[in-house]
Design goal:
The protein is an all-alpha fold. Helices cover 71% and strands 0% of the residues. The two termini are 43 Å apart.
């Protein structure tokens, strides 16, 4: 799920240019340039949390294994036929393309939301790394239901990690990007090793025994909702909603020679969002058989989801190192990206200071385990908020002629705030968020309807505003 440094990595290869012009043909990259990036960047810190969290929802073997196959396929198809298709047509960053349609003031609001959400995600990854760093100090691990810091040791470790990560991110992206490239293969290997060791610890010797680990599923743990087949499919499809249907990865695929490079996202989905999630889930399945976990369940409490101890139990010190690296390689570029989003709002501040501000916000978020322990819900909310902006780009690209509207209207009419975009997003977001809360509908279930409604309303409002 965590490929937030791909954009800067590719721009670094290309010289960090073309932010406000189409990428020239001489700078285009083959599909091989994207394959490794997506494979590495989607096997990161978030995967150590998401895999176990699936088990807390009482998911069955069929729902998890087949649901993830289908959901990740839908994500790949979204990248291939929407994101990559539009990216190679215009070869512009998401931010510049949105600015042409929405106006600069409205894009500022988008950047603020993006930056804050990035900080929260980075905070959850600082939490992940802290569960590994805390092992030698015999730190009490956060429980699944914890929202507040559980002790001074936790606070000190999170603040120390946050400070180190923020300072490294503030030094610029070159070091961060190179380090992430070196660490990604180690992390992928660690996930694979964890899965194999966990299978051995569970005594699995055949496919049928593997299938029986989850069996027909169970009741969800306290504080969790029950996941069915469709929960798994839709959630895994929209885990990266902001990146594919939300068009954030236009900034990545604008460097692709052909739209077919979009197929390389399958490496990320099936290495990270399939192998790594299932491997992490197996680690948690081992822990659930322990006397400690059984005691908690008997008392009606949810067993702890702490990636550090889970990986340590499987592969020892290598597991601890892998969890720290996985959290680091996610949090660092995410803080950097958040800083860039904030800098677009306050351009007079240096990159150093906006990154420190973003890192401080992420560190504060990391103190509260709820961001990591509720990661399934947070990721769903993240995509739900940002994905409809991608519908604006998609519907204008495919349907502007049929709707009879002017493309890039904010640029053509010299608008700083395109009301058609704002009201389309606000109505679709407000309506379906209300439905989700009022009728207790799983948020990922309403992401696609909100995306479609936003696109349709944009065409309708644009027609009316442009005519007037």
């Amino acid at each position: 799920m965590s490929q937030f440094n791909i954009e800067e990595e590719i721009e670094d290869i290309a010289g960090g240019e073309f932010e406000r012009v189409p990428v020239p043909e001489s700078k285009l990259k083959s599909w091989k340039s994207f394959l490794g990036m997506y494979a590495g960047e989607h096997a990161a810190g978030t995967e150590f949390v998401i895999g176990p969290l699936f088990l807390t929802t009482g998911v069955s073997a069929f729902d998890l294994i087949v649901g993830l196959l289908l959901g990740n396929l839908l994500a790949v198809l979204s990248w291939r036929f929407l994101t990559a298709e539009i990216a190679v047509k215009y070869r512009l960053t998401l931010y510049y393309q949105l600015e042409k349609i929405c106006g600069k003031s409205l894009v500022t609001g988008y950047n603020l939301a993006n930056g804050v959400l990035f900080c929260f995600l980075a905070g959850s990854m600082i939490t992940v790394s802290a569960t590994a760093v805390g092992i030698p100090f015999h730190m009490e691990m956060p429980k699944l239901t914890d929202t507040m810091p559980n002790g001074m040791t936790w606070v000190i470790i999170v603040i120390a990690l946050g400070a180190v990560i923020s300072l490294i991110a503030s030094k610029g992206y070159d070091t961060v990007s190179k380090a992430a490239n070196w660490m990604s293969p180690v992390i992928v290997l660690a996930f694979l090793a964890c899965g194999i060791v966990a299978l051995n610890q569970l005594g699995v010797g055949s496919l049928s025994e593997f299938w029986e680990i989850w069996g027909e599923g169970s009741d969800p743990f306290p504080g969790q909702i029950k996941y069915t087949f469709w929960h798994v499919v839709i959630w895994s499809w929209f885990a990266n909603a902001a990146m594919h249907v939300g068009m954030s990865d236009l900034s990545v695929f604008r460097f692709a020679k052909k739209a077919s490079s979009g197929w390389t996202t399958a490496a990320g989905m099936y290495v990270g969002h399939y192998m790594a999630w299932i491997a992490a889930a197996l680690l948690y399945a081992v822990y659930l058989k322990s006397p400690e976990a059984q005691g908690l369940l008997a008392n009606g409490e949810a067993p702890t989801v702490a990636p550090g101890p889970l990986a340590n139990n499987a592969i020892g010190v290598f597991g601890i190192i892998a969890v720290v690296l996985a959290g680091w390689t996610t949090a660092n570029p995410t803080i950097y990206r958040a800083g860039l989003a904030f800098q677009a709002i306050v351009p007079k501040l240096s990159t150093f200071w906006v990154t420190i501000i973003a890192g401080t916000l992420a560190t504060v978020a990391g103190l509260f385990p709820a961001f990591a322990m509720k990661l399934l819900g947070f990721v769903a909310l993240y995509g739900f908020i940002l994905a409809p902006f991608g519908a604006i780009i998609v519907f204008e690209h495919f349907f502007h002629k049929q709707a009879g509207i002017v493309k890039n209207y904010a640029e053509e009419a010299n608008l700083k705030f395109n009301k058609a975009v704002f009201f389309a997003w606000a109505i679709s977001f407000g309506l379906f968020y209300y439905i989700s809360i009022q009728f207790d509908v799983f948020l990922s279930f309403v992401t696609l309807p909100a995306w479609l409604l936003c696109g349709v309303l944009f065409l309708v409002f644009s027609k009316w505003i442009q005519k007037s």
